[in-house]
Amino acid sequence: MHSQLPAHRCSDSGLWVVKSTSVISTMADDKYLVYHGLMLPKIVHSEESLKHFETFEFRDDDVLALTYPKSGTTWMQEILPLLMNGGDTSPVKTVPNWDRVPWLEELRAAEVLSSMPSPRIMVSHMPYHLMPKSLFSSKAKVIYVTRNPKDVLVSSFHFHKMASFLDDPGTFDEFLDKFLEGEVMFGKWTDHVKSWQKTYMEDRIFHVTYEEMLKDLKGVLSRMSRFLGKDLSDEILEQVASHCSFKSMKDNAMSNYSLVPQDIMDNTKSPFMRKGIAGDWKKHFNPEQEAKFTDAMKREMRDNCNKITWDED
């Protein structure tokens, strides 16, 4: 255990829950920390990194991209530096994405962000209610990306196959159950999405879907750049859209995770940059699984008033 606090076993999942206001603990298999009930991979999270996250001081010109895992995080790590620096591709060609746009809750954040000049760009997988208090007192801007949860599940299933720091996903049917129960990193998709749909950030938050970006990336980039206060020409937007295509990113060693040792992320089992499409779930779900998943999503999201682009898929 990372803290000397009383805890108890929750069900048969191996999950440990801390009975205290301090909420960092470990799971039985030792691959995850548990933070406020969320499973976080220990390879990139620690008690110290989470304390840094909790006390992080946002600056007014910070930009933060928020996603549930496998919803377009790497894409945002490519897009945002280009929009913020007027289309200059040098940073995305020379600096790995985890240093260029670090995860706020992860191990390298303290070191990287302390020396990063403003405006700083960062990403996070955390739900709204766990964000540092300074986010809400600052003028920092947030971009929240949502993706069809069926495609999120498929992408996460393949990611678990190639990432040694995550649990083996088992069969697709088994992983589907884990996903619906929130027994995956960062918990339930529905909880995460709902937490960021009802905020008090008003004009400081920009919502976009993965599917919108696939259909009209240049149009999304134009709206996103205006939200960020950047006046970019049509030519620059075209260049950014071209550089942020799936093929371009897959060929970019600073973005495709090929720099990560194979014993940590094994691209021979499943490539990190796999397909980058919408609708791949149709090749994985059988009718029974689709019905089960859809029923669960409708039940969990029944009070959601925000229509999302794939509702009729």
UniProtKB/TrEMBL annotation:
EC number: 2.8.2.-
SUPFAM superfamilies found in the cross-reference section: P-loop containing nucleoside triphosphate hydrolases
Annotated family: Belongs to the sulfotransferase 1 family.
Residue ranges of domain Sulfotransferase in the record: 60-303
Keyword Cytoplasm belongs to the record: yes
Location relative to the cell: Cytoplasm
Name the record gives this protein: Sulfotransferase
Any one of the GO BP annotations: xenobiotic metabolic process
InterPro entries on file: P-loop_NTPase, Sulfotransferase_dom
Pfam families: Sulfotransfer_1 (PF00685)
Alphabetical UniProt keywords: Catecholamine metabolism, Cytoplasm, Transferase
Gene3D superfamilies cross-referenced by the UniProt entry: P-loop containing nucleotide triphosphate hydrolases
GO molecular function, one term: sulfotransferase activity
A Gene Ontology term for the protein's cellular component: cytoplasm
Source organism per UniProt: Denticeps clupeoides
PANTHER family on file: SULFOTRANSFERASE SULT
